[in-house]
Amino acid sequence: MKVIRSKAAMQRLADRLRSQGRVGFVPTMGFLHEGHLSLVRVARKRCDSVVVSVFVNPTQFGPEEDLEAYPRDFGRDRRLLGQEGVDVVFRPDAETVYPDGFATSVLVERLTRGLCGRTRPGHFSGVLTVVAKLLNIVKPDIAVFGQKDAQQALVVGRMVRDLDFDTRIVVAPTVRERDGLAMSSRNFYLTPEQRRQAPVLYRSLRLARRMVRDGERDAASVKLAMRRLIRRESGFRIDYVEVVDTGELQPVRRISGRVLVAVAAHLGRARLIDNIIMRA
Ligand code: PAF
Fold it and tell me: Which of 53, 96, 132, 253 is buried most deeply by CB count within 10 Å?
């Protein structure tokens, strides 16, 4: 497995890999867990070579967010990626990605207004700008994103479509701990007590599914029941509980067809997100 730090070397190697077969790409911010590794396995299955990037992207963190504290352990990441048979790890530094004079940012309208976009202004532009750069450097056939970050996956897919990137976006299922908590690098921030409480977010999503299965169609009633369940655990600061359509992520009043039920909440130092897609 090669670890590459320079853009030019990554571009040269990616050109060579592409001439030999299909290239799969998984962008990450490191501190890898089973969720990331499942994305790598999807890329591995569909492609001849796999490139993974490890870069904690400063532009997607707000001024009050956890950029400095974001967990990092490249030695461990490298070992895990080696075990997965990854061909190349691209690990640029911030000056390589954002050299002096860098002044461009990518914006996807509408889809980024709600959900995480509402309380994290600038976040998706930061994500899109770095993903656009990484896709231009690696030029993969496919790039794999996780369903846990449903809005991110959709927004990246829209950018790729609107700007004619020659890459297909593949979305892989959320990987959960045994008690249902969606895997996330930020779970690392949870104290043992908060770790015990955190799965209530997934339980609230399952409650939504049960209610809809039992015939409930009023989104407000579903959201209220979810909020009540989460509030039974102390310490949560709910960011949003939403039911939106899966195309434009607009809130729905009446649940019919395919919807995304999404939740985000702060618990101690961690901001946790989760979602499910269901059909009424
Ligand atoms: O999902 C993430 O880890 C990041 O948002 C990504 C896609 C690697 C961009 O920095």
Answer: 53
Q: Which residues of 212-225 are buried (b: 16+ CB within 10 A; e: fewer)?
A: beeeeeebeebbeb
Task: Give the H or E element holding residue 188.
Answer: none
Task: Name every residue whose Cβ is closer than 8 Å to that of residue 58 and which is 6 or more positions away in sequence.
Answer: 67, 94, 98, 126
Fill in the amino acid letter for 38: S
- Is the pTM here over 0.85, yes or no? yes
For domain 185-279, give the CATH superfamily. Answer: Pantoate-beta-alanine ligase, C-terminal domain (3.30.1300.10)
Nearest CA to ligand 1 atom 6: 28
The pLDDT tens digits for 50-93 are 999 999 999 999 999 999 999 999 999 999 999 999 999 999 99
- Contact 41/84 with Cβ under 8 angstroms? yes
User: Which of 25, 28, 134, when mutated, tests ligand 1's pocket best, judged by the most ligand atoms within 8 Å of its CB?
Assistant: 28
Render pLDDT for 153-179 as a digit per residue (tens, 0 to 9).
999 999 999 999 999 999 999 999 999
C-alpha 160 to ligand 1 mean position (Å): 15
**CATH for the 2-172 domain, from 3.40.50.1100, 3.40.140.10, 3.40.50.2000, 3.40.50.620:** 3.40.50.620
Tokens representing residue 56 in the block: 């904690």
- The residues spanned by each domain of the chain are 2-172, 185-279
